[in-house]
Design a protein that fits this description.
With 301 residues, the chain is of the alpha+beta class. It has seven helices and eleven strands. It comes from Schistocephalus solidus (Tapeworm).
Length: 301
Amino acid sequence: LTSLVVWCVTRPCVCANLEVFGRYNITRFGFFAVCAGRPFLVCHILMQMNQILRLSKLLTTGIIQQNVTSKVCVTPLRFYSESPVKIEKLSKFGLYVAACLPKYVQKVEIGHVKELDILIHPDGIIPVISFLRNHQNAQFASLVDITAIDVPSRPFRFEVIYNLLSLRYNSRARVRTYTDELTPISSICDLYQAANWFEREVWDMYGVFFSDHPDLRRILTDYGFQGHPQRKDFPLSGFTEMRYDEELKRVVIEPVELAQEFRKFEFNSPWESFPKFRDSEKNTAKLADAQPAPKKELPAK
């Protein structure tokens, strides 16, 4: 039956499909039972399926038809267009947001992917995101994701990023703010229901505390997990390990049986070359100029 349907889809000839449906009673398989006695309707559906297959092939490969002797190609369609007009409108809207909220907006730019990028003060989470969500000319009503970046060399080591989407204007915006281990930032669960699990994930992975969150607890790691795995100072081996104990006949969690020297990776790493907060490239230290960490001398016995 599968090969029969595939043959009918790939053969956009009405007469051939009518012949097949007249020769074989495919309704006994439960296929197109509602179309029994309507062969022309079935053939029309199969022809539409054939057109969809040809269109999908055109979008992915750019090839309309191909045989042994000829090949006709066109340029594949691009779903993302870097329109200068759209970029200019985003730039003007970013300046408009900065003019409306000068107390919170610190920097506005168009990123390398041609999306609006707004850097704000931590106190402006609720005002700025509420403005972008409710403004008539923005309508960023969809929260795509909340993530974070950990750069220990910065005074505020965590950079929290909110990715917003406007279905009305087909535009994206990225709102960035900053915090440290002890300073909480406001939760936006009252604005977006999707922020509940996103903020729990950031708390679990980075330890960024969100105030006024209805249920801020771990979401990816196990109960009683120690530390936050996405932090740069988190040891690669972790603090505990999970294994199955043959004597107890159950899974146990116990400290990692490694010496402290093997769990502390104190060599120079790429994240030490990040700037303080992307103010300028002058503050960026070169990795080649970095000096190795001094060796610790063991006390004499």
